[in-house]
Every structure is written in structure tokens, then in C-alpha cells.
Amino acid sequence: MSSKANLEHLWMPFSANRGFKAEPRLMNEAKGMYFFKPDGTQVLDGTAGLWCCNAGHGNDKIVKAIQDQAAKLDFAPSFQMGHPLGFEAAEKLLSIAPSDAFQYVFFTNSGSEAVDTALKIALGYQQHRGKVDKTILVGRERAYHGVGFGGISVGGLPLNKKHFSLLSNVDHICATHDLGKNAFSKGQPDFGEELADDLLRVINKHGADKIAAFITEPLAGSTGVLIPPKGYLERIREICTEHDILLIFDEVITGFGRLGTSFAADYFGVEPDMITCAKGLTSGTVPMGAVMVKQEIYSAFQDRDPKAIDLFHGYTYSAHPMAAAALIATLDVYREDGLFEHANERSSYWENALHSLKGTDPIIDIRNLGLVAGIEMEAKEGKPGTRGYDVFTNAFHNHDLLLRITGDTIALSPPLIAEKEHIDQIVDILRKIIPNH
Ligand SMILES: Cc1ncc(COP(=O)(O)O)c(C=O)c1O
Q1: pLDDT grade, residue 228 (50/70/90)?
Q2: Separation of 405 CA from ligand 1 center, angstroms?
Q3: In this structure, are 42 and 171 located in the same domain?
Q4: d(C-alpha 290, C-alpha 108), whole Å
Q5: Which of 65, 77, 108, 134 could form a disulfide with 212 if both were Cys (CB 3.0 to 4.6 A apart)?
Q6: Which residue has its alpha carbon closest to ligand 1 atom 7?
Q7: 272 and 391: one domain?
Q8: Which domain range does residue 226 map to?
Q9: Residue whose CA is closest, atom 12 of ligand 1?
Q10: What is the C-alpha separation between 278 and 250, in angstroms, rounded?
Q11: Contacts for 163 with CB less than 8 Å, ≥ 6 apart
Q12: 267 and 135 belong to one structural domain
């Protein structure tokens, strides 16, 4: 990869293609907490790749499982057919579900597909149980639920919707971010439980008998790490139960130890009716997503001829053998290496280290939970996002640190194997470079 011309033909996702191609940022290898640039320079991974490599990079056990599976069974058709590992993977995932109420798994290839699958299941479920008017899907402003048409419709990021037609039966409640009241909160902010009642506004507007489901990220990641206020998710659960609305937690980022527990549902003690997940499901090694559903949801689709297809939905690569092998090995590694507990133990060190940046100009908020943090910087006048972009590129090119940026917020989510020295290194670099931008 020596010539810049070689980079031209890949249209990169969510990227400033021309900017990248003028000054590329390439990774060539990875191990543990580090990526390696093509020239061999080590880059500290402050973001678990893209919120996904929770077990760290190149874990020997996961790599071997994928290699062995590729040699044994490369593919098996997924419609009306199966292979043993797919079923084992479903059982394995359910073994760490928040409760026994979750009994079924639908596999996809990504978080976006998991979200669109969950939305379809929600709509189908309401039809099957005779609630035929329950056709509205509710999301939240600023939410990110991937890039399928369902996901962008219930999502709340305007640029992601800009040129596209959306689903029509959709509404949104307000976001929870409140810098005036909650800036520099450690862990869950104190203020904002009552914002959950915005769901009541939407219910009053349409009628509960029209609403199929509410979907939310328990902790919003991609929009810039928004931590739910104390009591907020509990109140959301109450409202959904009271009004017979399915609650979907989109745990694509929060699943698999990010908060020191299997799922955010466990961390917050709030149980949804469906959970979407991906990313850490295979520690980012093989593309895979999943929807976990409760017994009664699956059962609602099973009341017809056993020879008839129960859900007209699926992917060629649902439960792909390599992904299934990766899932099983990844969950074993999480358990055997105690990585969720490790993340939990590290979280207070992480919190204190990050909050030591308070007072660094132009930081206007630091927020954290588990092994996630958001550092919001004041936007430059008339140039939102440029400060974030400059910090990100400076960190990579000059300090060999991988960050993630949304607008002017730095989003951090290191692999769960991060030790104190890695955390110190991330914070030291940020302390050095943020004031210069
Ligand atoms: C909460 C959430 N849902 C869905 C997605 C989409 O996942 P994918 O990029 O695998 O389609 C993401 C990706 O970051 C996410 O954070």
C-alpha cells in the first residue's frame, strides 16, 4: 500500500473520503491494546476499534476458533436449513441474557440489521396478537440506531436522514442531554428522570393503542456519549409497561461488558422486551448482530401451520458458521478472562483519570460510565466539528492514539483489557493536545 492512488476506489463509510485520501490513516496489524500502522508504529486503541473489539485485538482463542471453523464448514444455507454451531451460538448468547425471559435469538450481520429486524418483529408481534392499530415506532432525538431505513427513521441524527425517505409511522421523544444541570457529572447525572415523561406526550398525541414499540440506546454512544439520568430508564420501563408498548434496548455499544456487566439492562436493572446487539458479540472479529426476544414474542409468530414460514425476514449470512464460532469463542474469553469484571474494576480509575481533565480549556463537559467516556469541547464559532476533527487527526498522526469523534465530542471506549497505564497514556495525550486546538 505504497501509492496513494491505490486508495481511490474504496468509497469509505461515514468518512471525508477526499480528506482521508490526501492524508491517509491506515492500520495494518493489531494485537492486544494496539493497532500497528503500515510502517510498524504502534497505535494505542482508545476506542476498541469502533466500540467493538472488547476482548482486545488478535485474541489467540478467538482467532483459532475462526480459523478452525473456516476449514471445517465455510457456509451452510440459513433458510429452512441450519448447522449445529448456529443453534449453539443462540444458546450461548442467551446464557448471558439479563433473564430467562429471553428465549430466542435472531441473527443478523450488523447492528443496523439487528435494529431493523427488531422493529419488524415488534410490528409483526402487535399484528399477530390482534393489536392491528399498533403500528407507530417511537425513538429519541439524537439517537443512533444504524443506517437501515428503520434505524434512521427511529434514529435522531438529522444528517443521517437528510437525503432519504423515512418510514412514516415514527415519532420521537426528547434527548436527555442537559449541560446546564449535569455538566461534569461522574456516572449517571442527577437531573432528568422526568424527561422520560416526554414519552407520555407522544402517547397522548397518538394514543397508546397506536404505538407498537419504543426503542432506545440505554446509554447513547455514537451521538456523543449521553449517560441516562438517574431513574430515567426505570421510568421509561414503567410507562411502556403501563401502556402496553414494547421496549427495545439497542445495546449494540453497551452490550458485552462496556458497563462492566453483560448488558446495560443488567447494569441499570431495567429489563426491556427485546435487545439488539452486535460489535462486542464477536469482539469485532466477524460481522454479526443479534436480536434477543422474550418467549411470548416468538410464540406470537408460531400459531399457524408448522410448515408455513413464521417470519418473512432473514439474511443469507444469518448465523454464519464463522460468526457463530467467533461468538462462542468470544463469550468464552469474556468469561474465562473475567473481562466484564475487569472493566468494572477499572471503571473508577477511568472515571477519576478522565475527570482530571476538568478545567482544561476548551472542555465543557466530561461524562463517563463503565469503560465509556465523552469529552465535549466547545465548538469553534461558525465551525462546529472542526475542533473535534483536528484533535482526532493530531492524536493519530502525532501521538499514535486512536480516538473517536462525534462533532466536538471525543468518545472513548478502550478494549476491556485496558490497564491503568493505558488509561494514563490516553489521558496524558489528551491533556497535552486538547488545549492546542
Ligand atoms: C446503538 C447502535 N445501534 C446500531 C448501530 C449500527 O451498527 P452497525 O454499524 O453494525 O450496523 C450502532 C453502531 O455504532 C450503534 O451504536
Answers
A1: very high
A2: 15
A3: no
A4: 5
A5: 134
A6: 111
A7: no
A8: 64-336
A9: 146
A10: 10
A11: none
A12: yes
* Centre of ligand 1 from the C-alpha of residue 307, in Å: 34
Q: What does the DSSP 8-state code read for residue 72?
A: H
Residue ranges lining ligand 1, Cβ < 6 Å: 51, 110-112, 115, 144-146, 217, 221-222, 250, 252-253, 278
Beta bridge partners of 294: 102
Cell of 189: 447525572
Percent of the chain surpassing pLDDT 90: 97
* Ligand 1 atom having least distance to the Cα of 146: 6
Buried b / exposed e along 227-259 (16+ C-beta atoms within 10 A): bbbbebbebbbebbeeeebbbbbbbbbbbbbbb
Banded pLDDT at 121 (limits 50, 70, 90): very high
**181 touches 213 (CB < 8 A):** no
**Structure confidence at residue 5 (pLDDT):** 56
Q: Identify the domain boundary among 272, 304, 336.
A: 336
Q: Which of 222, 317, 405 to mutate to test the pocket of ligand 1 (most atoms within 8 A of CB)?
A: 222
**Amino acid letter at 20?**
F
Name the β-bridge partners of 211: 136
> Are residues 332 and 350 located together in one domain of the fold?
no
pLDDT band at 437 (very low <50, low <70, confident <90, very high): confident
Number of domains within the chain? 2
192 and 165 together in one domain: yes
Nearest CA to ligand 1 atom 8: 111
Give the residue from 278, 302, 336 where a domain finishes: 336
Residue 203 · residue 171 · CB < 8 Å: no
Q: What is the CATH number of the domain that holds 107?
A: 3.40.640.10
CA of 227 to the centre of ligand 1 (A): 17
**Contact indicator for 330, 114 with CB cutoff of 8 Å:** no
pLDDT tens-digit readout, 160-211 = 999 997 999 999 999 999 999 999 999 999 999 999 999 999 999 999 999 9
Measured from the CA of 253, which atom of ligand 1 is nearest?
A: 16
